[in-house]
Amino acid sequence: MSQSRITRRRAVAALAGGGAVGLVAGCADNGAGSGQNKPEPLQLNLDDPIDLAYARQKVIGSVAEEEIHSFLRFHFYGQVPGEKARPLFSMNNYIVDQWTPVERGTYRLRHWEVGYYCAFDTDEPIETWLNPYTKEELEVFQFVLGPIEREYSPDSVLAPGLAPIPLTSHIMGPRFYVATEAISQVPNLFQPEEWPKRSSGKMANWVSLQTISALMEDIVNPELTSAPSNIHLQNFISWGSWMQMGGRPGGTMARAYGTEIDGLDALPKHVHDGFKKYTPEIFETATWDITRFDEFDYFKLMQERRAKGE
Fold it and tell me: What rounded mean pLDDT belongs to the chain?
């Protein structure tokens, strides 16, 4: 049996550790007995805040100065109190993260993200959407965000506004799990008195819960600056203004899943072409310096249309 296997007993011990992972990780197979010349695995004390931040960083990004690309699939559902949830639409989502190490345990991020909506559970892009609640056919407004800058350290996340805050990390089986939460309530750009159809209420709510995991043997591999990771996300947010829900209670619930990929050219052609057509900004992150956010962009567009009498 490979030494890289983390036994159930060790996983349970890790979970029982007081809040942190609570064990020294460094048991990846170093090739002894197999004739392979592999480097010695890193010795990480995951009770140490700096070592824990280093391990966490290899899962969520990179401990080196490099760009990490990720692709996710979203499925959105409408949730109204007292009613059965309804499938709404899906999304192809793409993320570019530029990481820069400040010192061991502290890393600076520059983040770009886009998504184009699809018919539910398909890759078929949509430009209009039939609202199942109001029966109106509406123009779809695609998702664009960035660049957003953050700095992650062992004990804090510095960010202008909403940011995913790490929760307690755990080892389960052979994988290391990093869970984060981002919870926010801010005044709605679209106030109900002025925008009765597009407003979801006086306040806009956002709850985003993400879990990213990678193999421990990749985390302790000194030759890897980023451990290949799987990404899962759930969120519940106020209705998007473009959905024109007219103050109806509830919001959208989403699930997403994805992974790191080698770049945009690694996408299937039809998905790549969808990003090129609907969110071309993601191909230009080298020159994309002005911060964009879809809700702000949509608000500006609606103000311009209103001024023109449209």
Answer: 89
